[in-house]
Amino acid sequence: MSNYNKKLGKLGEEKAKNYLALRFYKILEMNYRAKGGEIDIIAKDGDCVVFVEVKTRTNDNYGSPCEAVSYYKQKHIINVAKSYIAKIGF
């Protein structure tokens, strides 16, 4: 991954974090890593724990952000989310 893409990704994650915080989500973790992957943001909305994958794009030339979260990536997010829940004990 290029330095530009890393910076763009970090900027997107910060914007997403700020967006959630303005809507009264409590940010629990940023870039949470566990065996099998990473979750960009873990937040709490009332009694709900929310797992957020951030995809930052400058255009749709390579598809929309939703298209970038493949079935394979979704499985990784689910596995890391399960690991987080088991660790924290929600």
Report the mean per-residue pLDDT as an integer: 91
Name the structural class: alpha+beta
**Total strand count, please?**
3
Strand-residue proportion: 25-35%
Order of helices and strands: HEEEH
What portion of residues is helical? 40-55%
Could you list the spans in which at least 5 consecutive residues all have pLDDT below 50? none
Strand order of the largest sheet: 1-2-3
3D shape:
globular
**Tally of separate helices:** 2
Keywords:
90 residues; alpha+beta; 2 helices; 3 strands; globular
How would you summarize the topology of this molecule?
Layout (H helix, E strand, L loop, with lengths): L2 H20 L3 E9 L2 E9 L2 E5 L18 H18 L2
Antiparallel strand pairs: 1-2, 2-3
What does this structure look like?
The chain is an alpha+beta fold. It contains 2 helices and 3 strands, in the order H-E-E-E-H. Strands 1-2-3 form a 3-stranded antiparallel beta sheet.
Compact summary:
The chain is an alpha+beta fold. Helices cover 42% and strands 26% of the residues.
